[in-house]
Design goal:
The complex is a heterodimer of chains A (about 280) and B (about 300). Chain A is mostly helical and about 280 residues long. Chain A has a single domain, classed as MetI-like fold (Orthogonal Bundle). Chain A contains 10 helices and no strands. Chain A starts with a helix and ends in a 7-residue tail after the last helix. The longest helix of chain B is centred in the C-terminal third of the chain and has 38 residues. The N and C termini of chain B lie close together (about 5 Å). In chain B, α5 runs antiparallel to α10 and α9 crosses α10. Chain B contains 13 helices and no strands. Chain B is an all-alpha fold. Classes of the chains: A mainly alpha (about 280), B mainly alpha (about 300). Chains A and B meet through α4, α5, α8 and α10 of A and α1, α6, α7, α10 and α11 of B.
């Protein structure tokens, strides 16, 4: 079977077996399109005070989700906020997956001192409550989106490394790897050409399941005021500022909360579906 | 037994690693903490004297050694912003976090395990689909959202609970506990369902039923005993996420706990306080995991024998 065929067959099975996962993929795609087209879809800017006199206005034909505490259009900020959430979901997850996969394979295949150094470090990282670790890293690095990427990548690589290492330990003993070794293929070539490709299904599943947790972490950090800073629009930050008006204008904080929930839910459904199709073993862990 | 001793050894190493990592992270900050502390107009001499008084002019390893020996004698340093010993601040706020976390854990365990059992017994039934749908919703909503919705609906609109929990006594902890336990309840329900459904297919369950035992005793006495082991491990793992979520919950409901202390420390750029709260919380998680591991090997004879 060629690579393309297996990819297509996985997609077919996903479509056949799990309608909800496919629907979720559609929802994610919709969010992506909305995020990209934000400037086209709304006449306002994300930091534009549309009507200073019309602060905290309820939803209307002009402002579908009303205006916020300084008179900005809430829907516009929601659309721009989806950019942050998607970026924060994807970028740090890609970085932590890459780092985790490389370190996990090195630890699992080379064993010995490399293994114990990498895995002790991973143990230490995993011992922290993730939110508190992210808070300390944000404190050290300072605010800003790049630092959020870094903080979340630093928090998440260890669990990826642990899973990839376990997989590598199994694969290392596989016959085809032994065959490769016996004809003199180098260690690093084996890791790259024989171990890594076999870890990819698990990595894809981990990838879709780590995105929602990264989105939740960013929103929590921004909610505490330690993440994205004004005047940028992040859903967590909007909840943070909207919270003061919870009793008079609940939609200010609830609308972005619902958006976070929807996108996280969509990624979780998709991840669950992919796991059932790609990697039934992972379910038991 | 030797296994447990080895685990304790590992735990000590991890604890030291954690302390070192926090220490390093908080000392590579751009900008001098002393300057922040004394204000921008302090003169050079005053800054120098203050630095010396706090021992910050010493080499890094001397500072770390002092800190670690201090920690072991119960001295976590003095908070810059609140001017009180960090240990004392933690001691006054920890009981609040503990109350919140215990209440949340109880809520999550009871709800999660009961829903998980029902879902497993009625696998693929309506209740199963309903509970599993809701539980996925449970792991997908941000803690602050549940907290605010509860606060808005039950505390503000219906006036059933106090809005702020700070001085409200036991009743004030109901909503924060639900908000904090919600996520964990979802994952416990899912895990209970999958492990119990697997155990229910074993032969010995059929044997027990064939002997004429009723369904409920078979589930509670025979099946649950085996299914509950992974759930126990998960509970320990969730101590960590409970402490993470507590930061948010305490902020929303104005509870003076460890999480809020950490946020205050960050806002006041208060390194000793931040260091103390993070070290304390992480140590708690690490010790919780150790206890769970020991408990696990006591409960499961298969593991006990391997040792």
């Amino acid at each position: 079977m060629t690579e393309q065929n297996t990819f297509r067959s996985v997609l077919c099975r996903l479509c056949r077996e799990n309608k909800l996962a496919v629907f979720s993929a559609g929802v994610i795609l919709l969010f992506v399109v909305l995020a990209i087209l934000a400037p086209v879809l709304t006449p306002y800017g994300y930091d534009e005070i549309v009507n200073a006199a019309n602060r905290l206005a309820p939803p209307s034909a002009e402002h579908w989700m009303g205006t916020d505490e300084v008179g900005r259009d809430v829907l516009t900020r929601m659309l721009y906020g989806s950019r942050i959430s998607l970026l924060v979901g994807i970028v740090p997850t890609v970085v932590s997956m890459l780092a985790g996969a490389v370190l996990g394979i090195l630890a699992g295949y080379l064993g010995g001192r490399v293994d114990s150094i990498i895995m002790r470090l991973a143990d230490i990282m995993l011992a922290f409550p993730s939110m508190l670790l992210a808070m300390v890293i944000m404190y050290t690095l300072g605010d800003g989106i790049i630092n959020i990427f870094l903080a979340l990548a630093l928090v998440n690589w260890a669990s990826v490394a642990r899973i990839v290492r376990a997989e590598t330990l199994k694969l290392r003993e596989a016959e085809y790897v032994e065959a490769a070794r016996s004809i003199g293929v180098g260690r690093f070539t084996i890791m790259r050409r024989h171990i890594l490709p076999n870890c990819i299904p698990s990595l894809i599943v981990l990838f879709t399941l780590n995105i929602p947790s990264a989105i939740l972490s960013e929103s929590s950090l921004s909610f505490l005021g330690l993440g994205i800073q004004k005047p940028m629009a992040s859903w967590g930050l909007m909840v943070n500022t909207g919270r003061q008006y919870l009793y008079t204008n609940p939609w200010l904080s609830l609308a972005p909360s619902v958006a976070i929930m929807l996108i996280v839910l969509a990624f979780n459904f998709l991840g669950d579906g992919l796991r059932d199709v790609l990697d039934p073993h992972l379910k038991k862990q | 037994m030797s296994n447990i001793i080895r685990r304790i050894g590992q735990t000590v190493v991890i604890l030291l690693g954690v302390a070192l990592l926090i220490f390093i992270m908080l000392r590579i900050i751009p900008g001098n903490a002393i300057v922040t502390m004394m204000g921008e107009h302090a003169n050079a001499e005053a800054i120098e004297r203050m630095t010396a008084e706090l021992g910050l002019d010493q080499p890094f390893y001397v500072q770390f050694w002092r800190y670690i020996t201090g920690v072991f004698s119960g001295d976590l340093g003095t908070s810059y912003s609140l001017n009180r010993p960090v240990g004392e601040l933690i001691a006054t706020s920890f009981p609040n976090t503990a109350r919140l976390a215990i209440a949340a854990a109880l809520f999550a365990w009871v709800l999660g395990i009961v829903c998980g059992i029902i879902a497993a017994v009625r696998k693929n039934g309506i209740l199963d689909h309903l509970f599993m749908g809701v539980s996925l919703l449970g792991v997908s909503v941000p803690v602050f959202m549940v907290a605010m919705v509860l606060q808005y609906l039950l505390a503000y609109k219906l006036d059933l609970f106090p809005i702020s929990s700070g001085n409200a006594g036991a009743i004030g902890y109901v909503l924060p506990a639900i908000a904090l336990g919600w996520n964990s309840a979802g994952s416990i329900a899912r895990l209970t369902r999958s492990t119990l459904a697997e155990v229910l297919q074993e032969d010995y369950i059929d044997t027990a039923r064939a002997k004429g035992l009723r369904r409920l005793p078979v589930i509670t006495r025979h099946a649950l005993r085996n299914a509950v082991l992974p759930v126990i491990t998960m509970m320990a793992v969730q101590l960590s996420s409970l402490l993470s979520g507590a930061v948010i919950c305490e902020t929303v409901f104005s509870i003076n706990g460890i999480g809020r202390l950490a946020v205050q420390a960050i806002e006041g750029r208060d390194i000793p306080l931040l260091q103390g709260t993070i070290l304390f919380s992480t140590a708690l998680v690490i010790l919780g995991n150790l206890v769970a591991d020991c408990l696990y090997s006591l409960l499961d004879p298969r593991i006990r024998k391997e040792v």
